[in-house]
Each structure stands twice: as C-alpha cells, then as structure tokens.
Amino acid sequence: MADTPEAFLEPPGCDVLVVGCGNLLRGDDGVGPVLVRHLWERGVPDGAKLVDGGTAGMDVAFQMRGARRVVIVDAAATGAAPGTMFEVPGADLAELPLQGLHTHSFRWDHAIAFARWALGGDCPTDITVFLIEVAGVEMGAELSAPVTAAMEQVIDRIERHFLAPLRPDADRDVTVEFTADGYLRLDAATAAARFPSDAVAAVLRDDEFWLIPLRGPRSGGLLLKQRTPAGDRSVLVSEVLRHSPLHGVFRGCWDDEQTALRIPIAGGRERDG
C-alpha cells in the first residue's frame, strides 16, 4: 500500500454535486431521489455529478469530498403546509435550529457535520440545502401533488443557478443538415447547449421546421443519437417531413421565447455548395 500512486488519493472533485436524499418507497420522503432522476433525464453537463443519496447519510458525506459546490435535496416534516419549500444557504447552516426537520435518523445536517469532521480540507464550504415539506410518507405511495409541484420549483432553481453555468455556450445562429436518408444533424455544441436531454419534438409550422427540447425520454418525442466521437447528434425526422422532404444545409436560429430551434425552409432545399 505504500506504493499507492499519490493521484489515487486526490479528491475526485466536481464543480457541482447534487444529492437527493430520502426513501423512494415512502411516498413524499422519496422526493430527493426522484428529483435526481428528473435532473438526469434533462442531461448532466460536464463538471456536474448527480447522486441518489437514499437514506445513507455517511455515504452522502463521502460523496461530497472535493466538490466545489454542493446541493442537497431532502424531505422535511416541520408541520408546515405540504409542499412548502425551504432553502437553507450554506452561510446559515451552522446557526439554523434544524432539530426535528424530517424523518431520517441520520439526516442531511448530520451528514454535513460528519463530512466536515471526516474530510477536513476536502469538505466543500459552498453548500445549499433544499427541503420540501411532506404530505405523507406511506409505504408504496407516489409523490403527492404539492410535493411534486415544489420539486419542479427546486429543479428549476438548481438548473438556473447551479447547472446552467456549466453548460456550453451556443450561438443563436446555427447551421444544420438534412440528409438524404431522412436525418437532421446537429453539431456537438448546439446539441449540448440546447438539447441536453437528447429528447426532442420536431414539428412543421408554416414555412419553418422547429426542433424543441423535451425534458427527457419519458416526455415522448424523438431521440438525438450520437454520430461522432466529438458529440455531433442526429435525429430521424423523415416521418415529420414525409410530404416535403429536405436535403442539404440550412440556417436556423434559436428562439429563447419559444424555446425552440427554428429553421426556415421556405423555397424548398438549400443545397450544400
């Protein structure tokens, strides 16, 4: 063991670690792991790590080793209205009275305290905790409506404040290729920035072809598939274009308001010249 390479002992680290704590089998208590699954379907940017922490608080503590920023999501049982969301910034963690917040014997605050003791300098200092008040924790139950609604709010906050800064920048104006065999091809940067879940909807609207990102495969739609080692993607759109097939390179523009890549196709084909 004395010959173990020093690199093996370095903390693995990541820019953002998102940990969902709770028991999937007990209704609203599983909101943390469910949230992690939704984030995974949306697409994980480079530098981020998602962890289903379950109910193993010590495992959560060691997952934090070397992370630059940490987000922990868990259920709460404070007596507040179901679906109430608490955001606990890292600066308040030491002072906030957290006794009795939820049902685990080894809670997220225990995990943080243990991590500070066990990890020393490798323990993150930028930690944010989101807690969602439960409606019920019956064995085998689904997430309740108020907890599901609160979870969506937390997902949006995590995406906006923690994950979006890690996603690659992309130009608003892009070029795409419609192939003779019915595929639409996107470059790697556009796919990673605009369509991170790899799930899309393709529609014709007037004289435009729209490619719309979906939240994940469970949303239905079409799937972008990797076609090059660099990360370029392609999606089969021949069914959408069966009455007006396209072939060649076209210019498109990202529409923030509609959250869609809009590709004008009036006049038929724009051949690659």
Automatic annotation (TrEMBL):
InterPro entries: Pept_HybD-like_dom_sf, Peptidase_A31. SUPFAM superfamilies: HybD-like. One of its GO terms (biological process) is protein processing. The keyword Repeat does not apply. It comes from the Bacteria. GO terms for molecular function: aspartic-type endopeptidase activity; enzyme activator activity. The keyword Isomerase does not apply. Keywords: Aspartyl protease, Hydrolase, Protease. Gene3D superfamilies: HybD-like. Belongs to the peptidase A31 family. NCBIfam families: hydrog_prot. This is Peptidase M52. It comes from Mycolicibacterium obuense.
